[in-house]
Amino acid sequence: METPEQEVLGYLREHEHSLTEFLRRLALAESPSTRPESQEEVLGILYQALTELGFVARRIPGQGSGGHLYARPGGCHAPVQLLVGHCDTVWPLGTLKEMPVEIEDGVVKGPGVYDMKGGLAQMVFALQALRELGLEPTVTPIVFVNSDEEIGSRESTRHIRRLSRLVERAFVMEPSLGPSGKLKTARKGGGVSPSWSKGSPRTLAWTRTAGPAQYWNSRI
User: Does the bond joining 116 to the residue before it have cis omega, within 30 degrees of 0?
Assistant: First the structure.
């Protein structure tokens, strides 16, 4: 008898073409972070896919972003795990003309395919596999997809923090690391910290002993 993991893997192998075509649809929906209106199509594709799986989905409007998507199973119960990802990319509109979506020798190429529409496609089909195989996860999955990750997640951070307080664990839907399919378990991070300096530029002018950092502080 197959284990649940083997069943899911077998299902995904059988539906590899459908998964690839779904990823192709996501990649063809160009969605640069700086063009909020461009997020409508890709969020719509994800919304439809999740509702067809029986999820209750809700679009969350953005102010300076294209908004976000939250979805949970119709019979959501505790404990809960968060599947979080982003649908925005760094590629400007029109990139498809120079970098078309291509599928060759089992490799999908195109803007946003790796970061991170590939992960979103994997997420949708993993949830589909659980549903079709009648497998009940021990931790109920809920989904949050933002559209401002590439520009700092400033609007979506509060939603992610609120959901994080309610869940047992969270998975960021980054694609696996390399052809071997290794799971990413850690990421680097970054931050912005403002600073203030007092004084006169005349006392911190550029000299042989005052380096560029001192000069920059004098101009703040």
Answer: yes
Q: Residues 6 or more apart from 76 whose CB is under 8 A from it?
A: 56, 140, 142
Distance separating alpha carbons of residues 217 and 203, to the nearest angstrom: 11
Which H helix or E strand runs over 98? helix 95-98
Question: Is residue 84 a contact partner of residue 170, using CB atoms and an 8 Å limit?
Answer: yes
Q: 124-161: per-residue pLDDT in tens?
A: 999 999 999 999 999 999 999 999 999 999 999 999 99
Q: In whole angstroms, what is the distance from residue 142 CA to residue 168 CA?
A: 11
Is the pTM higher than 0.90? The answer reads: no
| Cα atoms in the 13 Å half-sphere on the side-chain side of 202 | 0
Entry field: residues in the chain: 220
> Are 54 and 136 contacting, i.e. CB atoms less than 8 angstroms apart?
no
